[in-house]
Amino acid sequence: MSPLSITFYTKHHCPLCDKAHTILEELQEEIPMKIQKVDIYRSDELIEKYGLMIPVITVADEEIQYGQIHKESLRKRLLTINK
């Protein structure tokens, strides 16, 4: 199984983002994945696109989950993608 390439859109001082990152790290122990953190404040385009949604988890430019991240549903989705 090759590792999934996850893009994790986040920003500083975001409790939901911190919780989501912890969930991703926990899932990384059982699902091979590379996590690329992207601060949305790096570009106006990202702020406009994700400003009200963060944290946002994407795989191959598809939004998998955003906002309140739920570990079990995220696990199921990632396992489905990684088949």
Automatic annotation (TrEMBL):
<protein>
    <submittedName>
        <fullName>Glutaredoxin family protein</fullName>
    </submittedName>
</protein>
<dbReference type="InterPro" id="IPR008554">
    <property type="entry name" value="Glutaredoxin-like"/>
</dbReference>
<dbReference type="InterPro" id="IPR052565">
    <property type="entry name" value="Glutaredoxin-like_YDR286C"/>
</dbReference>
<dbReference type="Pfam" id="PF05768">
    <property type="entry name" value="Glrx-like"/>
</dbReference>
<dbReference type="InterPro" id="IPR036249">
    <property type="entry name" value="Thioredoxin-like_sf"/>
</dbReference>
